[in-house]
Hints:
133 residues, alpha+beta, Lipocalin, nine-stranded antiparallel β-sheet, 19% helix, globular
Amino acid sequence: MKLAKKNFRLGAVIVLAGLALYAQKPADLVGTWSGAATLVGVDAPNELTLVLEMKEGKLAGTMSDQYGTINQFPISDVTLEKGVLSFSSPVVGRGGQQATIKYKMTLAGDTMKGAIEIPEMGMTGAWEAAKKK
């Protein structure tokens, strides 16, 4: 009987934790997110800043970085499903080459982390950001 109660409690905790993750609301994401991004084969990390806002009931925003390769560009293709925020942003490479960075970020409270990809340049990496208070 004690084992059944423990299993029930553990199951309830797991379900509640899962619901909390899936219940992330777009309005909770509004604000400034910042953190270091790394690309495979690139030595120095890039400090990215994402500013999210609500526009006409949907998430919108801009990306920027310390190098100016991403300079207040608007994000696009924004989706929020089951605790995963996905979006794209333009980037200007060396020599003026334009490309798109695709982000797939897992949310956990005031942090997000996940994969980034620049298909046109064949590059992949990761980004971890925290919401500024």
